[in-house]
Amino acid sequence: MSDNKIFSSEQKAKLTQLINEGIAVMSEVETLHSGLKDTVKAIAEELEIKPSILSKAMRLAYKSEFTQEQKDHELLENILTTVGRTLWLIGIQLLILLKKIGMNIRYGYV
């Protein structure tokens, strides 16, 4: 292909429309993404959850990858059990459970 392609007036019109519509869509997506990020941050603060956790939950739900994530977690748990780190894992799971029911753990105290 030549770098100096000459476009017909019809092709020019299509390219112009594509570029203009693409810019509009990209701008809208950027605005929506920014608004979503602000919303996630506000809700995360309110619920005392890391924004990254909420974002990951949304991505998993959007991509329907929860099952794969769960399988990965099961493999991780198997690996930790194999190397004798089950107490660590149980401790982490307990902290997660306590946080879910509204108990915040700070400095080792409930």
Topology:
Layout: H1 9-47, H2 51-63, H3 66-82, H4 86-100
Order of helices and strands: HHHH
Instruction: Tell me the structural class.
Output: mainly alpha
Distance between the termini: 68 Å
Helix segment tally: 4
User: Count of DSSP E strands?
Assistant: 0
Structural write-up:
The chain has 110 residues and is mainly α. It folds into two domains: 8-63; 65-110. 76% of the residues lie in helices and 0% in strands. It is built from four helices and no strands. It is elongated, with a radius of gyration of 24 Å. The model has no long low-confidence stretch (mean pLDDT 81).
Short description:
With about 110 residues, the protein is mainly α.
